Structure formats: C-alpha cells, structure tokens
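User: Hello, can you help with two protein structures?

Assistant: Certainly.
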Amino acid sequence: MKSSSPRGFLAFAGPFELFSRRRILCVLWRGALLAFLCCPVLLRGGIAGSVDQSFVINFAGTVSGIASQPDGDLIMVGKFTAVNGLAPAKIARFNPDGTLHAPFTPPAMYSWEEPCFAAIQLDGKILAGVRGATPPYITRFLQDGRVDNFPPGYTQAVANPLTGALIQPDGKILVGGSNYTEPRSIGLVRFLPNGTLESTATFSIGEGPRADIGDGIISCIALQADGKIIVGGRFSRFSGQPHFGIVRLNPNGSLDPSFVARTEWGQEVACVVVQPDGKILIGGPFFTLNGQPARGIARLNPDGSTESLATFNPGTGTEGVTGIALQADGRILLSGYFLEINGQPRNRIARLLPDGNVEGTATFDAGTGADGNVTTGITLQANGKILLTGDFTSIDGQPRNQIARLNNDPASEVLTVPDNTRIKWLRGGSAPEISQTTFEVSTDGGATWSSPGTPSRIAGGWELTGLNLPDTISVRARGRFPGGDGGHSFSILEQCVDVPPLSASEAWRRQYFGTAANTGDAADLSDPDFDGNPNLAEFATGSNPFSTTPSPGLPAKNSGNLEFTWTRVKASISEANCVVEWSDSLSGTWNASSAASTTILTDDGTTQVLKTTIPAGSNGKRFARLRVTRL
C-alpha cells in the first residue's frame, strides 16, 4: 500500500511494477542522428506470428471493434460485460501493454445492444457505432470516457447491422450498413464533423446497394488519395445500376463509371485496403472477379481491372478472408475463417508476400493458429505487433479469450528535419501502412500546433518541402489506418520530434500532458491524480501521473539495519535528485541518507532498482520516504 505525502515527497510500502513504452525511433536534425531507440521483438524461436506472452486480456463476452490512439492506447468495443474480472462494459480503454487505462469511466451502457466499431478523430475523440438498437446510432466519447455532445442516431438513414466508419481528412464521417426495403434506408451516409447528417445536395448514393434476394449490405469502405470511395459488400445493384460486390464512388457519392471491378451474383467483398501505389486489395467470400476465377483474395489495378498474375498471384487463394492489414514493407496480413491458402495449412491467420505468395513458416509462423474464427478484427500497433479479435479461446494452443497479440518483425519510423525547408517521415518493416498523413509544427513546446502544408508520398514514406522552419521547433506527424473486421474501425498513430531534443522531463510531460512546459497540470509540483505524489516524483520513478502510483517496496530488516528498495528511471538522473530519508515519527526530524549506503541491484538500461541501507534505530522501527527535488 502507499500513503499520501507532502508535496515533493513519495512515501511508500508494498510491491510495485513499472513498464516502459519503446519502439524503433530515429531522430535526425540536419542530417545528424540524435537518438535511436529499438523495441526488441519477442521470439518463439524468433518468428513473427508467435503469441506475445506479455499481452493477456480476458473478456466476458465478445469484442467487435478495436482502434489505436495516437498515444498507443487501445479502444475496444463489443458485447462484453467485464474485462479481466473488472467492470468495464461495452467499451474500454487499454494501455499499449493491455492493462486497463485509468481514468476512463464511460457511463453504463446497459441500453446498448452491441457497439460494433471504434474510430479515433484527430482531436482524440472516440466514435463508437451501435448495432442492434432501433434505430442504430453513433456515440462520441471524450478521452476520459464521458459522452460528448454528438447528435445521436440517424433514423432510417442506415439500417442494422452497422458495418463500419471511415473518417475523411476533412473530418467528415462515412458510415455504412445494410439497406432494407422497408423501412427505407440507403446503406451509406456521411456526417459533418459536428455530427449532423450531410445534405443529399452534396453527398448522395441514390438508392444505394440492393440485392435480388435479401438485403443489400455495405461490408467495407476505403478512401483513395483523390477522395474517391471504394465500397465493398453483398449487392447486385447500386444506385439503380447493375454492380456486383464492389463499386467506386465519386466524392459526392455518385457512381464512378470508370471503375470496372465486379464479382458475381451472391458473392461478397468483405474487406478492402488501398495500397500506396493506388492498387486495391480485396478479400471475402467470392470466387469470380471480372469474369475470371479468383478465390477469396485479389488485387485490383486502380481502374478496377484484375492485376496480372505475374505480379500478384495467391494461387488457388482461400475462402473466408474477412480482415486485411497492410504493413509498410508491403506484406499483407489476413484473418478470417479460412483453414488454408493456396493449399497450405493456415488456421485463420496468415501473411502474404507483396507478390501474393503465402509467406513461409520460416519467417511467419502462427503455429496451429486460432481455434475459432478471427472474424472481428486484425490490426497493427505502431510497433508492428498484431492484434487479433474473434470467436476463439486459444492461439497456437495458448489460452487467449477473444483477443490476442502476436509478435512481428521490427517496425521503423524515422521522422527527420533534414534542414529548415523539409520534413520527412520514412516508415518501414512491420509498421502499419498509413494514409491521410498530416504534419504539424509547434513553437511553444506542443501547447499549440499548426499545419505547414500537406505532405506528399515519396518512396518509403512522406515528405513536405518548400518550408521556412525556425531553428527551435517541435514537429508532429500523424497517419490513419484501418483495422478490425473489414477495416471497420479506424486508428491514428503519431510520431514527434523536437529540435533541439527535449529533456527527459519535458518528453515525459509531452507524453502525458501534451505539452513540454512546466506549467498547469504538467508542473513539477502538480498532482493531477490527487494521490499525494507530485509530477516530479512520478517522473523520477517512472509512474503514470493519472493513476495511483504503485508502491516501490517495503523496507526489510537485516541485522541492525533497514534495507529499503526503490526504483529510479535513469533518464531522470540528470534532472531529479532522489534521496531516501527516515524518521522515528512522522512529526519528527527526517534524516537524509548521508549516513546510509545505496547500491544498484539491477539496471536494464532504462530503469534502475536500488537498495538503500539505513540504521534500524533502537526499537527497530522507522518511517522511510523518498524525497525528490529538481537539480
């Protein structure tokens, strides 16, 4: 347990643990390498696709959608009533390691039937779609879980089941679903950023998707760089015209007649991803594409024609692909209910090479795969690790209920400011392939940001030129990427660089408070979680300033001394002075550790565990505290 303490002090007793968020990060300024951090890959024999032993979450119920925030936190929605035995229901926020994030306290969602997707806006607000309700609707949450002012529902504009959302660069929100004959609905609508339904004068798909038998369903949506919209699903007509399984819309919702792709009657395109070169990956229960045999997975040219087998050849393909995730190196992750690809056993998880061939188990091996369908999601985290959700209880024979994380090859992100005229963001390896990239700059330590322009794609990343940047500046790069079943959920990742680089405490403030300035809630002596430990102490011990700080440990008696074990973040050593003090009473005089000895027990390069030996006193009892002051 931990007791409260005066400002500037940390008093503690009991066990604790710390965790460090790291991934590959290169920081350059005018060609000079300033920093390089690497996230090691856990290897079951070193193979990408193996189960990540450090990530375990147990849901009571189903997970329907997952999205990643710019800070790496995960938003998960579904018809679950508990997480790891705790109470969060229907929507929950997790730290990148899978632990529950605090504070995140949404209201009771007992009236929801099932949240089915999550999407993150650039301002950090969280959209969640709800199916099963009458009518279905969207709710928007703030970062702490409170419901935001967002017009709920859209009557019969889209019918159940809702299938997903896509946020455009201008903040408008596309939402897809079914198209029932009665009551009338159209299957795809677009909302303005404030949540009001866009007028049909500026966006209309006419009658939308229709099927000769059953309901027309929009299963997936993807956005091209030119603003055109790829729509996949199960339909035989669209806007009154014969179209099977896939269409392309102009930005105003009208059909693009230059797009020639089609499946056949009764077949479905369940997932779609647009590659950086404009080619289009599609997956689903289809067997024919553009009049030729194509089983379950294919790649289209930008005009909708099927790419030549000479450059993309998945062989005999597969059945039951419901999710596609694209890596920055061009490799293609698949999930669904398939059991083989091109005749090679692959239980519901697989990776293709950029040319469509199934990757061998020497470099990607999920073992025996999933024991149930992986049909509600596959998505990548910023560090390349692979998140799976579905109706399974184990992966490769290891217990994992509804969700699992797989290891992957290294991911790289290199955000550089080569000179005052350019910003460049190079991405590679297993990092998620992104779109809708934005660059922003700040001259006040991240308190405010402004856009210097729109970056353009270059080989391996993005670049913005023709700038006139000041010598001292912060730069932020952000990109969006889809995830979940059919890409229904929408994530954002970001990377920041400071020139010259921030100090460790400034970087810590930026991570948690969005600003590097020593003011307001981010100030050294501020205590935003009211746990009695000011920010400076939280920084020095590697703690989260928004959750109750765990205790570093209990003093242990050893002969005539007390041995006091505590933790220090190495990056804080140059900025914060940590001193163990003791007293025979809380109201008495506190003695510094000049009469004590301190030794380093462990040092992993980021965090040190230390032991300070202090006199036990005549009665063998003493109070101890860690005093943290700025150097």
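That covers the first. Now for the second protein you mentioned:
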Amino acid sequence: MSASETAMAQRLLAILLMATAAGCPGFPADGRYACAGADCCGNGLLDNDESDIDCGGLTCHACLADSACFEDADCASKVCSSGRCAPLCSRNNGGCDPNAACAEPNSGVRSCTCKSGFAGSGLACADVDECQTNRGGCDANATCTNLVGSHRCDCKPGYAGDGRSCADVDECLTANGGCDAHADCLNTPGSRSCSCQSGWVGDGLTCDPDVCLVNHGGCATIASCVAGHGGATCTCPSGYSGDGKSCTDIDECQTNNGGCDPHATCTNTPGSRSCSCKGGYSGDGLSCSWLGILQLGGAGLDEAGGVAVDASGNIYVVGSSDSELGKLASPKNDDDAILVKVGSDGTILWTKMLASTMVDAANGIALDSSGNLYVVGVTDGNLFGAVGVTSAFVVSYDPGGTERWHQVIDSAGQRVWGTGIAVSPLGVFVAGTTRADLAGALGGADGWAARLDPATGARVWLKQVGSSADDRVQAIAVDSSSRVHLVGSTAGAVASANAGGEDAFGICLDPDGKQVYSYQLGTAALDTFSSVTVDSSGMEIAVGMTFGSFPPVTNLGLTDVLIAFVDQTGKVRSTDQLGGGGQQAAHAVSLDATGMATVVGQTADPLDQKPIQGRDDGFVLQYLSGVRQTSRTRMVGADGLEGLVAVARGPNGTLYAVGFTDSAFPGFTNPAPGLDDLFLVRLAP
C-alpha cells in the first residue's frame, strides 16, 4: 500500500469512528457512514464533491459527531484542538501576551488582561517599574529593586527591617562599633563614627598616643606637629624651609623681588614679605602705577637742563650732578653732565654720565625722526678733547644710548657756552654764547649759532651774532622751513637802541646762516628771553622775564614773567606780563599741533589765583592764539623751593617738564635737604 493510500485509510477510519461515536440519527451505526462536510476519502475534497467512486463506494452524509472536528471551521466560536472543539483561550493563550490572562466571558469572545506587575493592552504587556512610583512602597532607608512583574525592598546597610519599614541599627552596641578601644563610638543614621579620645590620635578605628603633647613631638616651635601611627610628622609653615624639627625663614625678596611689582620695595618678614610701591607710584605693591613724578638726586647738587620725548613715549632728561645720581657711578669731580632715559611708566632704562675733572653740564636735548639723540652742553675740563677754559660740546646717541659722534666748539684759553639745540631735516642746529672769536667777534660777549651734519657732526657753518656790547643767546628753535630762531639778552643794540640795562632780543637766520630779521624788546630795567618756539605760521613765541613794566602791566615786585608774540617779519605783535610781589620767570615754552603754547617757569607768588605750595613753585601757563588760558594755569611744587626749567610734549600730547626742588615730593626723600634734586613731572595736555 502506498503512503497516500495509507493516509486515506487512516482518514476514513477516523471518520467512521466519529460517525459511530456520534450515532448519526437515521443512519445505521455500522461505521460505514460519515457526516457531510467531512473529507471521507482523505483526498482533500469535501463529501459534497466526492462521488461513490471517489469514496470507494461509500456515501458521505452531513452528520459529524458532537465536539469532533477536523479544523477550526468545524467548531462554532471555538478552535479545533486534537480533533475536539476547545475554548479560544486554549490555543496560544488566545493570542494574548504571555504576561496577560485570557478569558472568555461570552461564547466566541475572549479578552486579554495584563497580569499584576505588567501594563498594556493585553495583546502586548510591558513590565511596570514599581520603584519609579513612591519608591515602590519601600522605606526611605531602603533600596527598591525592580523585578519582572514585581519589585523588592531591601533595607540599606545600617538599617534593619523588611524593606517596607527599616529601623536604624545602633552599631555602637556591638564591639564599640568596630572603633578602637581608645575611641568614642557615636551612632549616626545608618552608620557610626569613631573619634579618638583625648591624648590619642588616629582615624578612630586605630588610635595611637598623641606624641605631640610632649615637647611638641620634637618639632620646631613654629612647625606643625601631627601625631600618627608610628610617631610625629613635623612640617614647617609657609615661608619657612627645613625638616620641621628645624625651620628657617625664607627671604622671598631674594627671588623675583618677592613677586612684588618692579616699582615696589620688597621687605622680608617672618614667614612672608611685604610689598610697597616706591615713591612716585601707587598700588598695593603687587601692582604699581606711575603717578607721573620722578625725583632724582644724591648728597650734592643735581640740576635739570632739558627734556625730550620720543615717538614711543620714552623721556630723556639731561642736566648736571655733583652727587651719585640714581644708577650713575660716583662723579669724577665737581659737576658732571648726565643723560637719563626714562620709560613711559617711570622706569629708569639707562643713564649716562659725561665727566671730566672739572665742571660739566648738559643744557639741552633734541631728537630726530629716527629717535637719535642730540645733547648740547658745556665743559670746563677736557671732555671730548676740549681745549677751552669753557667749551661747548654736542654729542649724538642712537636710541639705545650708543654714541654716534661728538663735536666740540671752543677756542684755546677762551670761553664758549652751549645753551640750546634744535633739529630739522636739514641738520642739527646749536647755539650759545662766547667771548672768543669763532667766526668774527663783534665785541664783548657774542651769541653764536652753528649748523652740524646730523650723520657725522661735521660743522656746516657757524655764525656769531649780536652787538658790540655783551650779548647772550639762551635758546634756539627751528621752524618748518628750517629757519633758525635765536633769543636771549643784549646790553647793546641788536635791532634797535637799548632801552636800558639789558633788553630781550631775537634773531632769525635762514638755513644757511644768513640773517632774515632781528627784533629787540626792553624796558629801562633788565629784560631777557630764555626760550622760544615757532608755530606753523612762523609766529615766534618767546618767553623770559623782566624787571620792568610793559604797558599796560605794572611790575609789582622784582621780576615778572614776560611773553612775546613776534610775527614772521620780526614785528612784536603783543606781549603778556604776569607777576606778583616776588620773583617770577618763564624758562621754557612748547607748542602742540593745535597751536596751544605751554610755558613753564618759577614763581614766588600765586598766578591767576592759583596758590603756591612752598616758597617757590613751578608754574604752567597755556596760551592759545596769543591769549592766556587762565583756567589752565597750574602750580607744581612740594614744600620747598621748586621751579620748572624745560618742557616737551609726548606723542599723545602729554606734557613732561623737568625742574628742581630743594625739598621732596610725596614718596621721595631728598638726601641733602636744602640742595637741589632734579625732578621729572608728567602734566595733563
């Protein structure tokens, strides 16, 4: 029998058995009949489609035994399972999620409900994390652990209970909580702490005798002693070095000035240091800002002669000193010429001393556009090979202070003074006074002027100027056309008859030394100019002092400030006279790009209702278009005798002036009270 025939036979047998079991009404129960709808022959066809031939002579009838089935379609609202109709939930949990309950409240209808600990539609159920809601009902001192379909509560260490209720365990009741026998056990929520008793040290779990209680554990008095297992640890405090048994103070000031500002003084203190800003600076010592004042001096006489400012804001001060000044070496003899470079923050960058065995002084300084320096001065010795009784010298330096060249203007056995210097693109122009015949003496003392090559110092020309009487050139300026402007005083007639005593005068030369014009201004008393500048229109502003009176002003005392405005033809356009009951004199003038002229000098009386602070003060006057700006008048002084002798402008318009004081400005000390120190002061524009 083939396999298909065997299957058909088994199928037929099943049908007959079901039919017999069912006892189909109206048909013999001989097993030869089957109910309609069954596959009698096992050939995949229902009986309605099967013929007697197909079924081997059997006839199929529609009468299947109760609860018997071949497929789900044989069961109404149920499923066919193992030949019997069964409830829907009996197969695969009725299609519900494995974590759901399947129920058939009505025939043919089933419902799915997620079990406790799960949530969802029943067809799909996800685990619920009970710990996310109210900690799953666990105690605040318990941990909640989520489980599949449930959760667990466990009391934390140091607590006991079922997890839903947890009580603190007092660990100290058992074996002192594990603490050392020389420790106190203190119960804490969920734990305990151990602390060594007095006279014992450690972490409480282990306690050792406190050896620091006896002789500080052998540590130095200022050291810290920490007792521990095995003995004491000695540590020197901050600011000291050593092994703790011996501690030595560290002098912090020996390294990087103790961290203080370079402009501060570092003072070592036990275990530390203190920083205090030096004179002329303010701040906490760690950071110091320049106040714009610098006083320089030694045990002798120190005088300022001139000042200039470069494009970077560095300030150059010249003068003389017969003492040890700042970083300079001790002078050789009498006064020595000095040159000091000061940074824009008040730092002394470098210094130079020009010294012979006699008196030497630097009287003026000028800079060119490349920052090269040109200094004019006098020497009574053999400085730079001078041979005169008094000789004028000019020396040039590069911005770093390296000499470029020097030139001496003198005559053997004669006196030549160098008093002023100016620079233009055409050269270096210097001036002074002489009693020698340098280029044709005129009689008595003469003024002189010279033009030098800026690269080599070689003389281009030299000219003596003046009258047959005594004439002194005090200052020089060069205008934008390189015309040379000289001012000073004369006992003779330089441009007109002398008014009496000495008159102030001015002479203008072209770049080749030829005279363009001259003028003379005087009273019956002594009058002199000490400085001059020229504005963009060629207007001269000459400053000095007078013992007389220039109408409408009447001299009220000894000397008054004298200011004259002279046009480019040499005509005096106006004057200004200012004074009090004592002595006043203007020593220098500087002009800015706006035409504002700044005049500095010395006064024994208030000016423009600005009071003085000492016996004499330096003063600052400002003029615009020939008119004194009285609201801008100011005084510069300490509590002694002060005066300003030169002024210059920096690249941002800031004014710097130099002067003298026989006392001391705040933060400074005069090593020789009563003798002059020189000072540098920064002024507002």
